[in-house]
Specification:
With 314 residues, this protein is α/β, with parallel strands linked by helices. The protein is built from 14 helices and ten strands. The protein has an eight-stranded mixed sheet with strand order 1-2-4-3-5-6-9-10, sandwiched between helices. Strand 9, helix 12 and strand 10 form a beta-alpha-beta unit. The chain is globular and about 50 Å long.
Length: 314
């Protein structure tokens, strides 16, 4: 059973934290559009293995506060939230696991404040070198306005459309077995642009639903309450966060397990291989027949990889 939350005050917000187990602390950071609930398969597995599993709803999500300004979601605030969580739990440091935007936050934290991270487990999103130009401008030129991160920047269209029918949004967005990598690689460039808006208007969807009706309703209810703007505001700080990282050493010196997914169409294989020079102590494991929602699509295999690596690193 998924635990009930406790609430801690950290960095000016009230954070919902879901915790189970005792032992070495492991903090799990979700991505977009997810929640601490995204780790429902990992929390009990970690607890049974003798770890203290801790998963917050992050700033702007679920039962945690939703500050109103775009600037409230800058990387400095997000890292301060995690430091405040550690302080509230009287922890100097912890093992961290992150997926999607939670993974990106952990890469940034590993560069800007590595002293509070013991080990890293990263799902799906590799560590990228900082580009010489603002990434949003690069994506705008390369993919156009339909690319979801570009679309998020200049309007609140996605905020409104996603919130209009949250159950439908999660039925469409969280799916498995959609497009295999081998098929995707043969598509023309215009069909490789990842849009989150266009699929919502289609009558038929590819692949299979990832969530049970009860799981879908959990997400739908949470986002019906919180809305999507806080979560999307993370993306609206992409240029600011890129500026913050100017001149910062990009080398990660923390022991790291990376779990990638072959059919995660957001990530190209060369992106994963390209991070090897940037992470000094890196182990890479790839999940076959798995898309972007790795810890929910292949929970048993993800749990096995995490636990084996953590035990070996003790």
């Amino acid at each position: 059973m998924f635990p009930e939350p406790q609430f801690v005050d950290t960095n000016g917000i009230r954070m919902a934290v879901f915790e189970q187990g005792n032992g070495l602390p492991v903090i799990l950071l979700h991505g977009f559009p997810e929640l601490a609930f995204s780790w429902r398969h990992q929390i009990p597995a970690l607890a049974r293995a003798g770890f203290r599993a801790i998963a917050p709803d992050q700033r702007g999500y679920g039962r945690t506060s939703v500050p109103p300004r775009v600037s409230d979601y800058r990387v400095e605030e997000l890292i301060a939230d995690i430091h405040g969580l550690l302080d509230a739990l009287e922890l100097q440091s912890a093992v961290f696991i992150g997926h999607d935007m939670g993974a990106i936050l952990l890469w940034q934290m590993a560069m800007l404040a590595p002293e509070r991270i013991d080990k890293l487990v990263i799902l799906n999103i590799p560590h990228y070198p900082r580009p010489s130009q603002d990434p949003v401008s690069i994506w705008r030129r390369r993919f156009g306005e339909d690319f979801y991160i570009v679309n998020f920047q200049d309007s609140h269209e996605s905020d409104r459309v996603f919130a209009a029918d949250t159950a439908h949004f999660f039925d469409v967005t969280m799916r498995r077995n959609q497009v295999p990598r081998a098929v995707f690689d043969r598509l023309p460039p215009e069909r490789k642009v990842i849009s989150l808006l266009k699929p919502l208007s289609r009558k038929a969807q590819s692949g299979d639903p990832l969530l049970s009706a009860a799981e879908r309703d959990y997400y739908a209810s949470a986002f019906a309450t919180s809305g999507f703007t806080g979560a999307i505001n993370w993306y609206r700080n992409w240029k600011h966060n890129w500026e913050v990282l100017e001149g910062v050493d990009p080398i990660i010196r923390i022991p790291t397990l990376f779990i990638g997914a072959v059919d995660d169409l957001i990530i190209a294989p060369e992106h994963i291989e390209g991070m090897r020079p940037l992470v000094t102590d890196l182990e890479i494991r790839m999940l076959e027949n798995c898309g972007h929602w790795s810890q929910q699509e292949r929970p048993d295999e993800v749990n096995r990889l995490i636990l084996e690596w953590l035990v070996d690193c003790r």
